[in-house]
Structures are given as C-alpha cells and as structure tokens.
Amino acid sequence: MFNEENLQQLYRYSYSLTMNEHDAYDLLQSSLEKFIKLDIDARNPIAYMKSMIHNRFIDECRRQKIVQFESMEETTLPTDFDVQTLEDMSVNEDMAEKMLLSLEPDEREIMYCWAIEGFSTSEIASKLEKPKGTILSKIYRTRKKLIENFSESSSDVVEAES
Amino acid sequence: MSNGNLKQVVRKHIESRSLSDKQLTSLLNMQKKDVKKVKQGFKLPERWVAMAAVFFIAMGNVLYFSLSVDMPLEQRIGSEVAKIIST
Q: Are A96 and B23 in contact (CB < 8 Å)?
C-alpha cells in the first residue's frame, strides 16, 4: 500500500496541519487505520489519504473547539494579486516554526500546497474544493499577517500596498 | 541568523520533519498485518459456506427419500410432478 516515502510525505502533510510532531504521527496513524479498515480501492491512495487526514483533523479541531471559524467574506484584493506574491517575501529561517504556528491550520495547508506541492492558486482551490476567491483572500490575509509580524522588509511591502 | 525566501524557508522547515525508524516500522507493520487479516477474513468463509450448503442440501434429499419410501408417489414427490411422470 504505502511505502516509506509515501508515509514520510503523509507525515509532513499531517505536520503542516498540526504543527506538532506527536499529534502529526497520531493523526497519520489513526487515518491509516481507518483507510485499511475501509479497504478502499482508491485510484490515487495518497490524495485519498490526504483528504482523510484533513477531514479527521478538522473533526478533531471541532471536537476540541480549537478552530476559530472565520467569516467567508472575501477581502477586496489588488487586481494582480496571486499566490506567487508570497515569493517576494524574505523571512528569517530561525523564525519558520514560530511563523507557521502563528497561522491558522487552513492557512498552513495553503502554504503547504504552495511551498511543498508547488501548486498555483487555481490548483490549490481545486484541491481544497473552495472558490478561487476564497483562497486568494486567505493568501492575502496570510501575507498581511506574516508581513506585520515576521517580514524583514515589512515596512517596504506594507507601504507599497497602501 | 540567515534570511531566505518564504517558500524555501517553509519548505526547509516542513521537509526537515520525518518519521523516526520506530514509527515508520510500526506503520509498515500495521499495513502488513491488516492485509493478512483481509485475505483470511474474506476468502475462507465464502468457501466454507458454499461447501456447507451443498452438503446440507444433499443430506436433506437423502434423508427425505429414505423416510418417505412407504408414502404414495403423489405425496412423495408432489402430485403435479407425479402426473407428468405417469403420462
């Protein structure tokens, strides 16, 4: 079913959601158990497992009431705004963990899709089954949050935006 | 303290995380165990159920015909079938 490489990939995905190594392993293990029990003959088992991990994580967050649900109102974005605008940002490597912890799980998932999977905005929207506008709003808010708290050239970027 | 492009920094941080050998072995073993369970759980009962069904049908017929020797043919095999046989 899943070889070592697949399991490592799934573990990193779990980690990007939980930001905790122990929780990431628990999440992966319980999802794998369910996958085996259901005996699903999925065309793309890795993608299927990722969606199982995602759903399980959301369920767990809802159960523990640790996710703050944001309104789905879309922010007014600059016309040329895209996920690639995140590329311009320069951040301190030592702040990586703190920076990712400051983001909401859904924002981290977008970061994972963009940085690890190399997806474009449309691909992220399709993978997460959400409208492109919603994904762009989230990217915009993520970028703003990161600029305000972590970017080395924050003042320049914020000024350029306003 | 070094600075880097956001994409590279995020990538580097997430990719630096990996399962330990113990965790990896545990997950791989979990898959092997369950594959065996699935194979045994689904193939054996079907075969045994089919064999038991054939056995009980055969034994039921033998028992019925051995106990109904003294009965008239109409009662033994049914009046409609007896009519067809007699004609």
A: no
Rounded distance between C-alpha atoms, residue A67 and residue A56, angstroms = 13
* pLDDT 10s digits, A53-90: 999 998 888 887 665 555 545 556 565 666 666 777 77
How many C-beta atoms surround the C-beta of residue A117 within 10 A?
A: 13
ipTM for the complex?
Answer: 0.77
DSSP H helical segments within chain B, as ranges? Answer: 6-15, 21-67, 73-77, 79-86
Q: Rounded to whole angstroms, how far apart are CA atoms A101 and A12?
A: 15
pTM of structure: 0.68
Count CB atoms within 10 A of the CB of residue B84.
9
Chain B residues inside the 8 Å CB shell of A25: 19, 23
Give, for B4, the enclosing helix (H) or strand (E): strand B3-5
